[in-house]
UniProtKB/TrEMBL annotation, chain A:
GO terms for molecular function: clathrin binding. GO terms for biological process: intracellular protein transport; vesicle-mediated transport. It comes from Cottoperca gobio (Frogmouth). The keyword Acetylation applies. GO terms for cellular component: endomembrane system; membrane coat. This is AP complex subunit beta.
From TrEMBL, chain B:
It holds the Pfam family Clat_adaptor_s. It is found in: Golgi apparatus; Cytoplasmic vesicle membrane. GO terms for biological process: intracellular protein transport; vesicle-mediated transport. InterPro entries: Adaptor_comp_med_subunit, AP2_Mu_C_sf, AP_mu_sigma_su, Clathrin_mu, Clathrin_mu_CS, Longin-like_dom_sf, MHD. The lineage of its organism: Eukaryota, Metazoa, Chordata, Craniata, Vertebrata. Gene3D superfamilies: 3.30.450.60, Mu homology domain, subdomain B. Belongs to the adaptor complexes medium subunit family. This is AP-3 complex subunit mu-1. The keyword Membrane applies. The gene is LOC115019953. GO terms for cellular component: clathrin adaptor complex; cytoplasmic vesicle membrane; Golgi apparatus.
């Protein structure tokens, strides 16, 4: 006791010294001393007023920590208000004065035994908020009692306290067995206790991704559903979010859960509504579509979603982001509700942009007239971002609803007449896209476009205009003059414009060879000799070689018929969409990013997939297998996951693999697959140390297939380019000696991707085919209980094969090998089973070849040529010796 | 869960902070201020912001930002709903939600925040539960408190929190038992240049003021419940009864509360009470324009349109307006470029008109954007959707209460494009 008192004195001095300097700047002179005197006053009333003043200073951020011992002295009181105030103070400053805080422990422990449940709950609650190790040690016993308290109010408070304690000292919570007690509380008779237990467990589970804390079974589900009806709105949110993690056993159970959740759609709290929508959207997947109930449920979902849009703008924003997902997954729900997305002029800009996005998604032949009228209205608004997006939206309507194309084009022309600079530029960008969708239909407007050539100052608009001029060079009399005018400032243009200009002039040359020879030479030399940009230079060389080698082939390549662009360019990739649907109402759904991409929250989020019995991802898993040459249908894998409203329908040049038209990209993938994988599988790492299964990750940091995504250094060697496309351009290889096989490979109708380097690389590499990259180590023995795998990809007799050497470096026999390809960018999958018949004895190695096909499920990987394999092998646990 | 809360005023000063877990430095708000500067108008600040280690979710209400900091994956709607609840509670306690009032009552606000959230989990957000624990300040009570040393913190367990009807406290007693319901409808509509309805819907709300002794069980039924497209209820309403009988059956909270929100969508025909004839044009050659607006009754269901007001956000280049109203008065705010014409009652015999000229900044080009008109109005004693309460019954108690239903229609976001 004596010691304590000494310490107290010391601290008091220390405390005041420490804060003195600060206190002159933050509080009035002498205030702290005055308060000190008042706090030590004998009069209760004066004490209370003083504590209030202290709290007031604290809330506005003043440092009153110097008063710690004086305030704590006021704690032993039977006045509830005073007690609460002191608790508030303690929670704030205990951390900075841990030794002092210990003084409060006795009072806490005593209060936890108080006959009044309010006091008991308050004490346990406050104790949990004091983030001081020494205090938490004393917390365990009172907490254990409170978790079993007779009063539900105390139990529910204690449940949350477990989460607090876990945050401070997770190990302690586990050692003390609080988690089990918490799990028991899910079966509590009081719904509020259940809700809080669920909330606490969910929070704890987030930092323990693999724990089965919330082990849901039909019994617990039933309890949760019962509690759902009776607990507070916030409790309902916790329970609904927890329910969404459950996977029902069959459609019966799914339906019965849906039936019991549906009433939540009529809750006044929008968060409850959205969480209910999440559960319904997820469990609906399990229901057979012909079920009557399925249709009823669909109908029930629309009105609450519409009602969310009449709430405060912040709520609207979150609702709209989620509706955007819902509309992509199940457009039928809101197809008749177009009008609620019409924009009001005083909506905040973030609401306007989201509404516009959804309007386009819902646009159809039935409502296109209305939509267009609205968009035209928006294009005259004040807000520049919004106007731009509206103009782009008109273009997207044209592409989406063919019947409306003509009206859209004339609307765009009207807008161009306004001469408002940014409107004109946006309009030109989208008209280019319309040309790509409906070639040879609206070229009459080109003249109007050309009038505005001078006003274009944004790279995207300039590039679009140049593309139009190049594409329709034969119909524009002065095309050469127009393009030449751009050439003057070639080096000041952005890469996008430069690349486009290069291509356009080559096109022009191929169409009108006689008068434009000089121009094409000029641009080729600008691109190849004066530019530091490897993309530009490489493309320049390719054109140059192509033109000098075989102009006929060049014509076939460059002027080939282009594939039509697809309708929706910014759809979220289906696997991601499925995952996001499972996370409706969360931050992930607001950002449209996978939950794993989230900062702190990423710790525990497991990938969730819709459990759908039907229709989930059928589009993903059926790439067009018939088209051997690679003109497959647009695989969803190359659709950008994050585009703005329009994406860039034609942005072939800058980012071919993410926003380019699908066919060239897939062509490149299929043809270039061999080289790509062969050249690149040089660094492999198995991340996890606990096989089986063993995920293999192959990363190729410098990928020739992605020259634009990871800009390659200017002097990369020809081998890295995949094939030996006579192109060590930097060294100025002779142009006259093209690889003999080149034209042949270009006769395939793949030239849609002519702009892309890797088409050429892949095309050339294949027939030459002689280069088989050596095997590289994929999986070191250490990481796979002794199984070492090295391998490579080769093409034999036109079939892609994966050749592997398996080496058993363990002490025991291995057998029953199998292999699984995880989804990858190229749809690579085994064409036959892995043929390793004999068990592998220690120190033995075996060669295995696995034929591959490219008809497997496609999923875009980052980087593109990342491939994950899983080897679930069996190690015979036979001890050697 | 919700980690911290910062209250920030219009000019960007943090005047209150509350942390429910560890203390997070104020500097986290810098990301918010950055976004605020970028957005120019405070209304346009995005409600969800990402920073390297936290998420900032904010609402803008009554010229104040309520900014919460979260660290883990939390449903953003949950946070936004909670923030609105904080603002509601402050308004409920102190009459309005303003910086000066919050500063004056900072300790009470702090106590409230402490009761509303525990470790980031909502604890008590029902106003009547809160009021049992922390009494709202009244002049009388503060006088009494200083005299007898009472306190404004209750020392009994908020019983309501534990019963199956957490929204109602036990032992309510009144000498006059009364139950009043206000059916309030707002018309959200967009009319185009020619006066055609582009979009219209009705947002309705039933506000209740119930002061009844004991545990009354009420049933409110409608003449025409089929009108309603979507409904959302106060937690007290029994959903099953609504589904089967289309009647609202509930044990009411004590005092004022929102019983139900509803929505009548554009699918049904929405009555538009007034028409607007307008012409706002600017000349190509001269820096000026003309304005001519007339408003007349369309479908008012035989009632008078009151509190009629027109608000126009003028293009930036309009420097002054020289107008003549036949009724009411107008003001033009140069700073915000907002023209307000306050008309008052609509007289069908003599339609109000506002006409005159607008002058633009010298040399300014003809404005590109057309200003939209915002209409405010009020019609007493009618719910424009036609919704009618047929009767209110009470069970569970013996006395006979006073009952009353009032209807009123207002313009919500009622816009006319030009």
């Amino acid at each position: 006791m004596q010691e304590w008192a000494n310490q107290l004195c010391e601290n008091r001095q220390f405390g005041s010294k420490m804060t003195d300097s600060k206190y002159f700047t933050t509080t009035k002179k002498g205030e702290i001393f005055e308060l000190k005197a008042e706090l030590n006053s004998d009069k209760k009333e004066k004490k209370k007023e003083a504590v209030k003043k202290v709290i007031a200073s604290m809330t506005v951020g003043k440092d009153v920590s110097a008063l710690f011992p004086d305030v704590v002295n006021c704690m032993q009181t039977d006045n509830l208000e005073l007690k609460k105030l002191v608790y508030l103070y303690l929670m704030n400053y205990a951390k900075s004065q841990p030794d002092m805080a210990i003084m409060a422990v006795n009072t806490f422990v005593k209060d936890c035994e108080d006959p009044n449940p309010l006091i008991r709950a308050l004490a346990v609650r406050t104790m949990g908020c004091i983030r001081v190790d020494k205090i938490t040690e004393y917390l365990c016993e009172p907490l254990r009692k409170c978790l079993k308290d007779e009063d539900p109010y105390v139990r529910k408070t204690a449940a949350v306290c477990v989460a607090k304690l876990h945050d401070i000292n997770a190990q302690l919570v586990e050692d003390q067995g609080f988690l089990d007690t918490l799990k028991d509380l899910i079966s509590d008779s009081n719904p509020m206790v259940v809700a809080n237990a669920v909330a606490a467990l969910s929070e704890i589970a987030e930092s323990h991704p693999n724990s089965n804390l919330l082990d849901l079974n039909p019994q617990t589900i039933n309890k949760l559903l019962t509690a759902l009806n009776e607990c507070t709105e916030w409790g309902q949110i916790f329970i609904l979010d927890c329910l969404a993690n459950y996977t029902p056993r069959d459609d019966r159970e799914s339906q019965s859960i849906c039936e019991r959740v549906t009433p939540r759609l009529s809750h006044a709290n929008s968060a409850v509504v959205l969480s209910a929508v999440k559960v319904l959207m997820k469990f609906m997947e399990m229901l057979p579509k012909d079920l009557d109930y399925y249709g009823t449920l669909l109908k029930k979902l629309a009105p609450p979603l519409v009602t969310l849009l009449s709430a405060e703008p912040e709520l609207q924003y979150v609702a709209l982001r989620n509706i955007n997902l819902i509309v992509q997954r199940r457009p039928e729900i809101l197809k008749h509700e177009m009008k609620v997305f019409f924009v009001k002029y005083n909506d905040p800009i973030y609401v306007k942009l989201e509404k516009l996005d959804i309007m386009i998604r819902l646009a159809s032949q039935a409502n296109i007239a209305q939509v267009l009228a609205e968009l035209k209205e928006y294009a005259t608004e004040v807000d520049v971002d919004f106007v731009r997006k509206a103009v782009r939206a008109i273009g997207r309507c044209a592409i989406k609803v063919e019947q409306s194309a003509e009206r859209c084009v004339s609307t765009l022309l009207d807008l161009i007449q306004t001469k408002v600079n940014y409107v004109v530029q946006e309009a030109i960008v989208v008209i280019k896209d319309i040309f790509r969708k409906y070639p040879n239909k609206y070229e009459s407007v080109i003249a109007t476009l050309c009038e505005n050539l001078d006003s274009l100052d944004e790279p995207e608009a300039r590039a679009a205009m140049i593309w139009i001029v190049g594409e329709y060079a034969e119909r524009i009399d002065n095309a050469d003059e127009l393009l030449e005018s751009f050439l003057e400032g070639f080096h000041d243009e952005s890469t996008q414009v430069q690349l486009q200009l290069l291509t356009a002039i080559v096109k022009l040359f191929l169409k009108k060879p006689t008068e434009t020879q000089e121009l094409v030479q000029q641009v080729l030399s600008l691109a190849t000799q004066d530019s530091d940009n490897p993309d530009l230079r490489d493309r320049g060389y390719i054109y140059w070689r192509l033109l000098s080698t075989d102009p006929v082939a060049a014509k076939e390549v460059v002027l080939a018929e282009k594939p039509l662009i697809s309708e929706e360019t910014d759809l979220i990739e289906p696997t991601l969409l499925e995952e996001l649907i499972c996370h409706i109402g969360t931050l992930a759904s607001v950002y449209h990013k996978p939950p794993s991409a989230f900062v702190e929250g990423s710790r525990g989020v497991q990938h969730k997939r819709l459990a759908g019995s039907s229709g989930s991802g059928e589009s993903v898993e059926s790439p067009d297998t018939g088209s051997a040459a690679g003109v497959s249908e647009a695989p969803p894998a190359v659709i950008p996951s994050q585009g703005d409203l329009l994406g860039d329908l034609l942005n072939l040049d800058l980012t071919p693999t993410t926003t380019g038209p699908p066919p060239p990209a897939s062509t490149g993938m299929q043809m270039g697959a061999m080289d790509l994988l062969g050249g690149g599988l040089d660094s492999l790492m198995g991340d996890e140390s606990e096989p089986p299964p063993i995920p293999l990750r192959t990363d190729t940091p410098q990928s020739p297939q992605l020259p634009h995504q990871s800009p390659s250094p200017p002097d990369y060697s020809p081998t890295e380019l995949g094939g030996d496309l006579g192109g060590s351009p930097a060294m100025g290889a002779p142009f006259g000696a093209p690889p003999a096989t080149m034209p042949a490979s270009f006769n395939a109708p793949v030239s849609g991707g002519l702009d892309d380097l890797f088409d050429l690389a892949g095309g050339v590499g294949m027939p030459m085919g002689a280069y088989n990259p050596p095997k590289t180590l994929w999986l070191p023995a250490m990481k796979a209980k002794g199984l070492e795998i090295s391998g490579t990809f080769v093409r034999r007799a036109g079939v892609i094969q994966m050749e592997m050497t398996l080496n058993n470096k363990a002490m025991s026999v291995m057998s029953d090998f199998a292999i699984q390809f995880n989804r990858n960018s190229f749809g690579l999958a085994p064409a036959g089973p892995l043929q390793i018949l004999t068990p592998l004895s220690p120190n033995q190695s075996i060669e295995a070849a696995l034929p591959l096909s490219t008809v497997g499920p496609v999923m875009k990987m980052e980087p593109l040529n990342n491939l994950q394999l899983t080897f679930p092998s069996v190690t015979n646990e036979k001890t050697a010796g | 869960m919700i980690h911290s809360l910062f209250l920030i005023n219009h000019s960007g000063d943090i005047f209150l902070e509350k942390h429910w877990k560890s203390v997070i430095s104020r500097s986290v708000c810098d990301y918010f201020f950055e976004a605020k500067d970028k957005a120019v108008d405070p209304e346009n600040v995005p409600p969800v912001l990402q920073t390297p280690h936290h998420y900032l979710i904010s609402i803008y209400r009554d010229k104040l930002f309520f900014l919460s900091v979260i660290q883990t994956e939390v449903p953003p709607l949950f946070v936004i709903e909670f923030l609105h609840r904080v603002a509601d509670t402050i308004q409920d306690y102190f009459g309005e939600c303003s910086e000066s009032l919050i500063k004056d009552n900072v300790v009470t606000v702090y106590e409230l925040l402490e009761e509303m959230l525990d470790n980031g989990f909502p604890l008590a957000t029902e106003s009547n539960v809160l009021k049992e624990m922390i009494r709202p300040p009244t002049i009388l009570r503060s006088v009494v408190n200083t005299l007898i040393g009472g306190s404004n913190v209750g020392d009994t367990l908020p019983t309501g929190q534990l019963s199956s009807v957490p929204w109602r406290r036990v032992g309510v007693k009144y000498t006059n038992n009364e139950a009043y319901f206000d059916v309030i409808e707002e018309i959200d509509a967009i009319l185009d240049k020619s006066g055609t309805t582009v979009f219209a819907e009705i947002q309705g709300v039933i506000e209740a003021c119930v002061r009844l002794t004991g545990m009354p069980d009420l049933t409110l039924s409608f003449m025409n419940p089929r009108l309603l497209d979507d409904v959302s209820f106060h937690p007290c309403v029994r959903f099953k009864r609504w589904e089967s009988e289309q009647a609202l059956s509930f044990i009411p909270p004590d005092g004022n509360f929102t019983l139900m929100n509803y929505h009548v969508s554009s699918q049904n025909l929405v009555t538009i009470p007034v028409y607007v004839k307008q012409n706002i044009s600017f000349f190509e050659t001269e820096p000026c324009g003309r304005l001519d607006i007339t408003i007349g009754p369309k479908q008012t269901m035989g009632k008078t349109v009151e509190a009629l007001m027109v608000t126009i956000h003028m293009p930036k280049s309009v420097v002054s307006a020289n107008l003549t109203p036949t009724q009411g008065s107008y003001t033009y705010d140069l700073a915000t470029k907002v023209l307000v014409w306050d008309i008052g009652k609509l007289n069908p015999q003599k339609l109000p008109n506002l006409r005159g000229s607008l002058s633009l900044q010298a040399g300014a080009p003809k404005p590109e954007d057309n200003p939209s008109l915002n209409i405010d109005l009020k019609i007493q004693q009618v719910a424009i959707s036609g919704l009618k309460v047929s009767r209110l019954e009470m069970f569970g108690e013996k006395y006979k209460p006073f009952k009353g239903v009032k209807y009123v229609t207002k313009a919500g976001k009622f816009q006319v494009r030009t």
